[in-house]
């Protein structure tokens, strides 16, 4: 079993955390997709649900 790192501790190692959302509107529905982006060791890492 892998250890669980609490989110505040994991984010403290990152710089410039940003939470954004993409919204798409069509005739039948509205969808929203959140994305979390952070800078880690000079690289930008983004996580979005599938």
Indicate the structural class. mainly beta
Report the biggest beta sheet as strand number plus sense, adding barrel if it closes.
3 strands, antiparallel
Q: Tell me the strand percentage band.
A: over 45%
Low-confidence stretches: none
DSSP summary: helix tally: 1
* Helix content estimate: 10-25%
- How are the strands of the largest sheet arranged? 1-2-3
The first-to-last residue Cα distance is: 25 Å
Any idea what the shape is?
elongated
The succession of helices and strands, N to C, reads HEEE
Average residue pLDDT: 78
Kindly provide the radius of gyration, computed on alpha-carbon positions and rounded to a whole number of angstroms: 15 Å
* Domain count: 1
Number of strands: 3
Report on the architecture of this protein:
The chain is mostly beta strands and 50 residues long. The protein has one domain (7-47). Helix content is 12%, strand content 54%. It is built from 1 helix and 3 strands, in the order αβββ. It has one helix at 7-12; strands at residues 15-25, 30-40, 43-47. The protein has a 3-stranded antiparallel sheet, with no helix packed on it. Strand 1 and strand 2 form a beta hairpin. The longest helix is centred in the first third of the chain and has 6 residues, at 7-12. The chain is elongated, with a radius of gyration of 15 Å.
């Amino acid at each position: 079993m892998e250890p669980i790192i609490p989110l505040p501790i994991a984010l403290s190692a990152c710089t410039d955390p940003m939470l954004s959302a993409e919204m798409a509107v069509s005739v039948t529905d509205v969808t929203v997709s959140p994305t979390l982006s952070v800078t880690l060791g000079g690289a930008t890492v983004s996580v979005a649900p599938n």
